[in-house]
Amino acid sequence: MQSSPQQYIVDEKGNKISVILPFSEYQQMQKDLHDLAVIAERNNENTHTLVEMKKRLGNSL
User: Fold this and answer.
1) pLDDT tens per residue across span 24-46
2) Measured at the alpha carbon of residue 41, what is the angle toward residues 34 and 55, in degrees to the nearest 5?
3) What is the pTM of this model?
4) Which InterPro entries did the record assign (predicted)?
């Protein structure tokens, strides 16, 4: 993802309080956050080796 120039909204003291970004960049960030949430949820699931999966799928390949 190519990042666009950052634009900020600042308060009267010059503190950054918001950021302006292209909607497409925002959408990509939302997708990335969703993917990370799914990964975190599945972190403790049991895993299977490639050999096990080949055995399980063997009849359907």
Assistant:
1) 999 999 999 999 999 999 999 99
2) 110
3) 0.59
4) RelB-like
Domain definitions of the chain by residue range: 7-60
**pLDDT by residue (tens digit) across 15-25?**
999 999 999 99
Name the residue with tokens 């960049």.
Answer: 25
- Asked if 21 and 9 count as a contact pair (C-beta separation under 8 A), the reply is no
Closest CA to 9 of 19, 1, 22: 19
Residue 1 to residues 14, 22, 32, 41: CA-CA distances in angstroms?
Answer: 29, 12, 11, 25
Q: What does the chain come to in residues?
A: 61
